[in-house]
Amino acid sequence: ERESDDDSYEVLDLTEYARRHHWWNRLFGRNSGPIVEKYSVATQIVMGGVTGWCAGFLFQKVGKLAATAVGGGFLLLQIASHSGYVQIDWKRVEKDVNKAKKQLKKRANKAAPEINTLIEESTEFIKQNIVVSSGFVGGFLLGLAS
């Protein structure tokens, strides 16, 4: 059977819906506000501490690996330079470094509003979840030390 043409349809404006609902509500549901509202203080500290420790431990391991690779590369370059295998044009290096500095200054001035917005959002998140954030910082420091 065909439906009549006089049926009415409800139109849903998705742009207005998206403005009213944050991305985490769409992803996790309506009850996914700040963690403070959902868990006890002890649970929040443990969650923050465990995730912080994992992040600190990984940061330490990756940092050691990166430092070893960069240091080893500089050592090999220095040995090759002293042995005569590599000739370094220091005037060209200085010119390129100065050029890179100028480009970085230009880009830094353009990115300032985006960085300020990111800092404000991060600060607001930390304020809303201060217990988890402090647990994370403590765990991160312990992860770096272990």
TrEMBL record:
Where is it localised?
Mitochondrion outer membrane
Key word S-adenosyl-L-methionine present: no
Matching Pfam families, A to Z? FUN14 (PF04930)
GO cellular component, as recorded: mitochondrial outer membrane
Instruction: State the UniProt keywords alphabetically.
Output: Autophagy, Membrane, Mitochondrion, Mitochondrion outer membrane, Transmembrane, Transmembrane helix
InterPro entries the UniProt entry points to: FUN14 (IPR007014)
Any one of the GO BP annotations: autophagy of mitochondrion
Its record classes its membrane topology as:
Multi-pass membrane protein
- Family indicated by similarity: Belongs to the FUN14 family.
Protein name in UniProt = FUND1 protein
Origin species, per record, is: Chloroceryle aenea
